[in-house]
Write a structure and sequence with these properties.
This protein is α+β, with helices and mostly antiparallel strands and 222 residues long. Helices cover 20% and strands 23% of the residues. The strands form two sheets. Strands 1, 4, 5, 6, 7, 8 and 9 form a seven-stranded antiparallel β-sheet that branches. A two-stranded antiparallel sheet has the order 2-3.
Length: 222
């Protein structure tokens, strides 16, 4: 997939291995429930890596279209893997981690982390799955729809007051999904889930589930 910048004049999203989004978001997260994971935001536009070519793309850079790898970087840091978008991009480029120049192959995360964090699923916008993952202490990479373009963010929790909480790599900040994109998560197009294999960097409050989500993982991105 392409990960376009969130500005006027962006090219339309190009969807590889597209999945039909037919799951209705009629069951928002419980209003009385709260769960939040502390993860520092990472900006794809940080000057240390923003200008680097994204994969082998002749036109895109991390700054312009690297939201997916920035979101994954935040997730990996949470699990104790010290990486930044520039380092991750360089590894992906050298090790076949992109398809069609700059389209992230999600299972490359498993290889990069030497199995410490495994790609476990590609799902539609199922808030039940999102809540289960966040309750288990596992942040979720989510694709959001904005003005006909696609963008990736990291879901980090939810509160009764704010709803779903996110780290947004375009803005490099932490906000609520509703404040920036839509109410009740209705602009989530799809999600990517990941399973840690060891407890490095986790909250340690006893609520981490080490059993993969029972829902069968969807096919990997191509």
């Amino acid at each position: 997939m392409k990960f376009p910048r969130l500005l006027t004049g962006l090219r339309p999203a190009i969807v590889a291995g597209a999945i039909a989004v037919t799951i209705a978001l009629s069951n928002p997260l419980g209003a009385s429930a709260e769960d939040a994971i502390e993860i520092g935001p990472v900006s794809q536009q940080d000057g240390a890596w923003a200008g680097a070519r994204l994969g082998s793309s002749p036109t895109e850079t991390i700054g312009s279209a690297g939201c997916a790898i920035a979101a994954v970087t935040m997730m990996l840091r949470y699990y104790g893997i010290n990486v930044d978008p520039g380092t991750f991009n360089a590894w992906l480029t050298a090790n076949g981690g992109y398809a069609f120049d700059d389209m992230l192959i999600w299972n490359a995360v498993t290889t990069y982390s030497a199995g410490r964090v495994t790609f476990s699923g590609w799902f539609g916008p199922d808030l039940g799955v999102i809540e289960a993952e966040l309750d288990a202490g596992r942040p979720v990479v989510a694709e959001v729809h904005l003005a006909g373009n696609q963008h990736f963010i990291l879901l980090t929790g939810y509160t009764a007051e704010a709803g779903i909480l996110i780290n947004d790599p375009w803005f490099g900040d932490s906000v609520s999904l509703a404040a920036r994109y839509a109410e009740s998560g209705s602009d989530i197009v799809s999600i990517r889930t990941f399973m840690p294999v060891e407890p490095a960097g986790l909250r340690g409050d006893g609520r981490m589930s080490w059993v993969a989500n029972a829902i069968s993982a969807a096919p990997l991105a191509r």
